[in-house]
Amino acid sequence: MATPSDNRVFLIAGAAAVLIVAVSLALWFGRGPAPTTAPPASQGGLTVDVADAPALESTRELRCFVAGRFVGMATLAQCAERNGLATDALDVGIDETGALAAAPTASLAPPPVEPSALIDQEPMPDLPPVTDAGQPVAAAGESCLRHVGGDWRAVSSSMSLSACVQALYSGTCVRPGDALYGRWGNTTLRLVPGRVERSENNADFRTLVEQDRRCNLGPIN
Q1: How far is it between the farthest Cα atoms of the chain?
Q2: Residue 123's Cα: distance from chain center in Å?
Q3: What pairing do the DSSP bridges indicate for beta strands 62-66 and 195-199?
Q4: pTM of the entire structure?
Q5: Phi, psi values for residue 41, rounded to 5°
Q6: Cβ distance 105 to 111 under 8 Å?
Q7: Is the confidence at residue 6, as pLDDT, over 70?
Q8: Rounded CA gap, 64 and 157, in Å?
Q9: Are 153 and 145 in contact (CB under 8 A)?
Q10: Following CA atoms 23, 26, 32, 33 in sequence, which dihedral angle do they give, to the nearest 10 degrees?
Q11: Cα separation of 131 and 128, whole Å?
Q12: Of 26, 54, 151, 187, which residue is least crowded by CB atoms under 10 Å?
């Protein structure tokens, strides 16, 4: 015959079993329907709908720049042909007039006027030091200038080309369509996305040194 204490044990065990079943049923019915599609994170990243993105009409005319000079209105294809480039090699942006323009990289920022044209009188050149034999010593480098805020500012009166380029552009990057200008002697320097260029006539530029994505410059030969 079961004692009262045995009955209490059975009652407590039964109540616990009923509670566990009730909680399990509540959790099961509260889950809701299973999702029919995989979560975005499982699809390899964010998916962006670009169906409504604006497209540049092929017949629309823009201000066309060639070698930093405005040459008139043209379609994107016509402007690319004038520059001798593929259409996708042009940058499209807003020029200083606020109008839509197309140009090769950095041509939206044309070269500034050379330093000699910004002053009324040429400064007296520094005389090179003279040895005991009376022969002048060759200069160690050329003057290095930075173009900032519409003015030329001296970085050094005598620098090698490599040192000047590093002083002007090391650790600095520009966005497509922008350019930073400098001077080394009579050579114009220009930082554009991915490289530093040089020009002896302030118009025709060629690559001097490449720049990586971290804005570091390669060696200058």
Answers
A1: 132
A2: 37
A3: unpaired
A4: 0.54
A5: -65, -30
A6: no
A7: no
A8: 38
A9: yes
A10: 80
A11: 10
A12: 54
Q: How far apart are CA 69 and CA 78, in angstroms?
A: 15
Amino acid (one-letter) located at 1: M
25-77: per-residue pLDDT in tens? 666 666 555 555 444 333 333 222 333 334 567 888 988 888 767 888 999 89
93-115: burial string, b at 16+ Cβ within 10 Å, e else: eebeeeeebbbbbbbbbbbbeeb
Amino acid at the residue 90: L
For residue 154, the surrounding DSSP H or E stretch is strand 151-159
Percent of the chain with pLDDT over 70: 61
List phi, psi (to 5°) of 107: -70, -15
Burial class, 136, CB count within 10 angstroms (exposed 0-12 / middle 13-18 / buried 19+): exposed
Neighbouring C-beta atoms of residue 81, cutoff 10 Å: 14
**pLDDT surpasses 50 at 120:** no
User: Residue 65: is it exposed, middle or buried by C-beta count within 10 angstroms (0-12/13-18/19+)?
Assistant: buried
